[in-house]
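We emphasize that the prediction below concerns an isolated chain of 175 residues; any contacts that depend on oligomerization or on bound cofactors are therefore not represented. The input was used exactly as deposited, without trimming of termini.
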Amino acid sequence: MSSHPPLSKPDSVLRCDELAAGILDSLAGRYGIMVTPVGPDDAITGSYWGDSEAGLVNTRLLVRADTPVHSALHELSHFVCMSAARRRQLDTNAGGDYAEENAVCYLQILLSDFVPPMHRQRMLEDMDRWGYSFRLGSAGRWFKEDADDALAWLLAHQLIDAGQQPTWRLRGATG
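Result of the prediction step, given as a token string:
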């Protein structure tokens, strides 16, 4: 699995300005991260890919109105999945290895169920529209048929429970 800048139909993905007020803030807040809006003509500080992609700096998730929801949830999932040491120095590049990146993609799909009107099916479709690349050709097939390693990683780090529900914990958090 790899993610990269948009390749296909990026205009048809769900954007942050289409969400009800407070939805993203509430979800991010459960992990101790604050959503920071950026002006419509401003660059998004902390954005790895640039353009409308979400950014990460310290405990802030930076988004514009035109930021794709999948991008915001992907970066939020990076924040959740990264080690505490990386989280303390976070500025733009979340880092991580292949296994962690897969876990990030899996978690963003699970978190989409807490973001109406996104939900899981729309997340999978938007990931495909944006150009996420999976061995089996689609996010949906990867999630259903080829993501056992990502699921195991999230379970091992206690970021989800056996029912695949978020534990609302950060990797490496105690208590």
